[in-house]
Amino acid sequence: MSEKRIFPIIFSCLFFIAMTILTVFTPAVHEKMIPHVRVEKLTRETFPFDYVNGETRSSMQQKIALNEKYANKQIFLLYEAEKNGTQRYFVREVSIELGDFYNGYYEVKSGLITSDRIVIETNKELFDGAEVFIE
After folding, report:
1. Domains in the chain: how many in total?
2. Which side of the chain, N or C, has fewer Cβ within a 10 Å radius?
3. β 36-41/117-122 pair status
């Protein structure tokens, strides 16, 4: 066999091997490169409130609540979307309005609902629209 015919065959074999290796290891590399996050669902806590029914009375009411540890931080909401044919997780930065403080929790007046999952810990800095891996 001539040298001119062997080179394309060797090149094709090496290319095939390289592509196979990339296909096998790409998901693992991708997973290590994106931020890893821990998420938590919001809770419902009881907050005192006053109401007037002929006279002023006090009672307790269940409201969506955010732990005081997360109140002064950027709040990132977790959502799922399709990318390149697979379901993946992303985060979206949200602005929230906080209300009363009671028993270690702030009332969430707007910006989040009970079923939302928020990021409570991450190993890398997040930005709006970042793809993440849930631990």
Report:
1. 2
2. N
3. antiparallel
Task: List 86's β-bridge partners, or say none.
Answer: 83
Which residues, at least 6 apart from 110, have a Cβ–Cβ distance to it below 8 Å? 96, 97
pTM listed for this prediction: 0.70
Are 45 and 103 in contact by the 8 Å Cβ rule? The answer is yes
The Cα–Cα gap between 83 and 80 comes to: 10
Q: Exposure of 70 by Cβ count < 10 A (0-12 exposed, 13-18 middle, 19+ buried)?
A: middle
63 and 17 within one domain: no
- 72 and 89 in a single domain? The answer is yes
Task: Give the domain extent around 3.
Answer: 1-33
Give the type of residue at 115.
S
- The reply to whether 26 and 82 lie within a common domain is no
Q: Which tens digit of pLDDT belongs to each residue from 52-74?
A: 776 766 778 888 999 999 888 89
